[in-house]
């Protein structure tokens, strides 16, 4: 039986939200419309605009609403200037109106379904934002187990952290060390491990043939974890670089156990079905 994959970010978000213990970790996410862009920028200041079915961070944009006070008028009225910034790949565009911003975004989106998500002010490593990949797999006892938590640092001037977009992989402890002491770091690691397992369990209720997930988690300035995205076809072989080879062997052994790879060849066992 093939491993179940779920391509739609919107579908996965709506499968997780009904769980009241997980909903607080999901940043507000809506389908992209001009009205939602206006409302969410007014509330959050920064939003991410991402394709519903995208992978590797392709097509992701970040929009910001910026303000500055204007000099008082002769009547003593103090106003403010509002402008907008759009970032994608390594490009930055500035607009004087929301309508101009929306026009450029709409031209990039065309007819494809896109989501708009609250922007999280991520922790940084050497001035570059990072997030965490929580890898959770079905183990050999048919239980969900988080096998790895690794960090990903965005490439200079990029709005995403993905390796395919130039992101750099770093170890969890290295990234959180400036923000947490050793005991706090252990507690956070345990919390993220359980979070990955709970999300996997929640998704499995709707998708019973799910066997692995990669949870992308962003830490805000209060070290609060936000689930930015869930990948149902997470990278595995890229972790062969790990100095702890026994850990990688366990990750790969689990993947063989639930049928992603062939035990004899180490290659993908069969084609995967998407939902």
Structure description:
The chain has helices spanning 9-16, 34-44, 98-109, 172-176, 182-206, 245-257, and strands spanning 4-5, 29-31, 46-51, 61-69, 80-88, 91-95, 114-118, 124-125, 128-138, 144-153, 168-171, 212-219, 225-231, 273-274. The protein is of the alpha+beta class. The protein has two domains: 4-26 and 121-274, D-amino Acid Aminotransferase, Chain A, domain 1, CATH 3.30.470.20; 29-118. Strands 2-7-3-4-5-6 form a six-stranded antiparallel sheet, with helices on both faces. Strands 8, 9, 10, 11, 12 and 13 form a six-stranded antiparallel sheet that branches. Strands 1-14 form a two-stranded parallel ribbon. The mean pLDDT is 91. This is Endospore coat-associated protein.
């Amino acid at each position: 039986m093939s491993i179940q994959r779920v391509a739609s970010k919107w579908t996965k978000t709506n499968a997780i939200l009904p769980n009241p213990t997980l909903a607080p970790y999901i940043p507000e996410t809506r389908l992209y419309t001009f009205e939602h862009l206006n409302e969410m920028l007014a509330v959050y200041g920064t939003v991410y605009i991402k394709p519903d079915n995208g992978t590797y961070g392709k097509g992701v944009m970040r929009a910001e609403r910026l303000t500055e006070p204007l000099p008082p008028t002769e009547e003593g009225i103090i106003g403010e200037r509002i402008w907008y910034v759009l970032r994608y790949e390594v490009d930055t565009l500035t607009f004087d109106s929301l309508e101009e911003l929306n026009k450029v975004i709409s031209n990039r989106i065309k007819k494809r379904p896109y989501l708009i998500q609250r922007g999280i002010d991520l922790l940084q490593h050497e001035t570059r934002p990072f997030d965490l990949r929580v890898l959770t797999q079905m183990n050999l006892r048919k239980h969900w187990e988080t096998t790895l938590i690794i960090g990903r640092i965005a490439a200079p001037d990029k709005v995403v952290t993905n390796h395919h977009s130039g992101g750099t992989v770093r170890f969890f402890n290295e990234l959180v060390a400036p923000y947490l002491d050793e005991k706090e770091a252990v507690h956070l690691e345990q919390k993220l491990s359980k979070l990955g397992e709970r999300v996997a369990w929640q998704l499995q209720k709707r998708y019973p043939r799910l066997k692995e997930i990669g949870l992308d988690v962003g830490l805000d300035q209060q070290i609060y974890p936000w689930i930015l995205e869930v990948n149902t076809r997470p990278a595995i072989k890229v972790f062969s670089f790990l100095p702890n080879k026994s850990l990688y062997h366990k990750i790969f052994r689990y993947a063989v156990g639930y049928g992603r790879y062939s035990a004899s060849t180490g290659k993908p066992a069969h084609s995967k079905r998407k939902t």
